[in-house]
Amino acid sequence: MEDGRAMPSAPPPAASDSSAPRMTDLERLRHSAAHVMATAIAKLWPEAQFAAGPPVAEGFYYDVELTHRVSPTDFERIEAEMKAIVKANQPFERKVVSRAEALALAEKGRLAALAERATPSRYKLDILASIPEGATITLYQNGDFLDLCAGPHVMRTGNVKAFKLTAVASAYYKGDEKNPQLQRIYGTAFPNKTEMEAHFTMLEEAKKRDHRRLGAEMGLFTMDPDYTGPGLPLWLPKGGAILEELEKLAKETEFAAGYVRVKTPHIAREKMFTTSGHLPYYAESMFPPMEIREAEDAAGVSGRYYLKAMNCPHHHRIFAAEPRSYRDLPLRLAEYGCCYRYEQSGELFGLMRVRAMNMNDAHIYCAPEQFAAEFNAVNAMYLKYFKIFGFTKYRMRFSTSAPEGMGKKYVDEPELWKQTEDMVRAVLQASGIDYVEVPNEAAFYGPKIDVQVWSAIGREFTLATNQVDFAVPKRFGLVYRDRDNTDKIPLCIHRAPLGTHERFIGFLIEHFAGNFPLWLAPDQVRVLPVTDAQIDSAKGIVAELRAAQVRAEWEFSNDKLQGRIQRAEAARVHTILVVGAREQEADAVALRIHGKGPQGVKPRAQAIADLLQAIRERRSDEGQFSA
RNA sequence: GCCGAAGUAGCUCAGUGGUAGAGCAACGGUUUCGUAAACCGUGGGUCGCGGGUUCAAUCCCCGCCUUCGGCUCCA
Questions:
Q1: What number is the ipTM of this complex?
Q2: What 3-state DSSP class applies to A417?
């Protein structure tokens, strides 16, 4: 066999790569596959200008500038060229060069190309310029294809055994829309065909969990772009049930934690958002204003109203509605507020990115000395929720400011920024929560913590957010009278542990693959009489369950019991209660749980008590009916 | 918003320059049934929208809308 035979346990060895970035074996393989693809493209279109071609989570891509529009119909040709290159088994040769040598090659169009060309390798020139002085500059060559590249690579093109081009998309050079648009050609590569096929099978499986698909299948929500508009979901009754359960959870949790509930309108005058400072910063993310002529007053105050994109300004006005004393603090105002954001059309994505959203919002106004305790309590609430839902893969992202953004991206209060960030960092460290700090990502009014989660199908989302605001209360002139009889400005914590209904439920659908635990399941119980002689018994059980607020229904149809069970299972009904002559006789029910099969017969009263208990505890499905 | 792709019945998808097809779902009937599909029948489509080419367009061409895959931002 060839050297460096690609095996999962014995991956291809790297070409010499002491100065190269660290890559896993799979990443290295994929990075080499990207070079093989670039070689093929350069062969087909010698004028191609390549930018960057890294490995990514699912495979690799290479950005290329090319007048020919690459479409999936070209993939076959490109793959055929790639196969030839793999078959040729060209070695990947690493060359350390001086900056001058690299520049000379780039000027002659020789980089990321098979030969010298009339036009310089312009993106490679730009990348070259960004390599710091003194760093090692390396080239990699396979066959005639010579590329500026930090590496590392596998030994030979023959190591790239299983690959496939998957998509083409556009991407701005370096992700900046002021830069030229490049064609990004995606592919994936694996050590062998079997693993690659497993990958595509897994993608097929993941598709079945997709919240858009399950949402339609299960009747949870619908999109009606022609009538309601893009990004404006309609919640169907079964989705509404989930939404109600989440609100109930939030309301109970917040009530216990000392929050008070408020309710605010969906719109506000322009003054609200110019005062908050959102308007100049945030205008393009808001729906255009409504002009109401009568509202324009003599003093020339604008008659414009905006749909709110956030709830905080309204809550600030509630704080301002009466004089506040230090005795009133912390004041925790909670609301399931509906906000509207004009997301760009290309950004809309099922329930995960919408234009109208119901936010599990609250604003905590507190004195600086109360901050640590409040902030800790908020974090504890996050963790409590994650435990209920069984989220294990999450990360807190602590976003802080950067000096260069002061007065532009961030309110110009460098001292306050530092104080607050130190305070948040201290709390995070003391609480032992796992977090990463990301500079220059803060909100304009203060540092924030985003909770990122990964769905079962591998999508990453910011699910919840927790922000500190030391600026906007001041802009609204919010004060409380302190012990020393002076007015002080409160700190404000914005928090939304359950994010928005839309994204949270979208995430839950994928997390549970539609198989919700009993307390969340839209169809909690379905009672199936074996024959029509048990219909009255079934109705009685349903009435008893519904009186106890359980979502229960009964079904009798022309289908045999087996068929009705099949349909209930397909509909992901959580608990099926079968009542036949035997059960009727014994005042019992035969229990079946979705995905778990029959669970035996139980006295009716016992079964109902168990169901109520599981719902009340919001029990996850493990051990639901373990007894 | 930009680049690319897609849009046929409620859902999943076939298909053709000449009257539009299947499975599931729905509806009607027969069946009274024991834990993942009993049987028979019926209805259902402006083939995303608008324009063009053509004797004829769901199919070919152009524009638009929407959705999807990305870029960027974010709950």
A1: 0.89
A2: helix
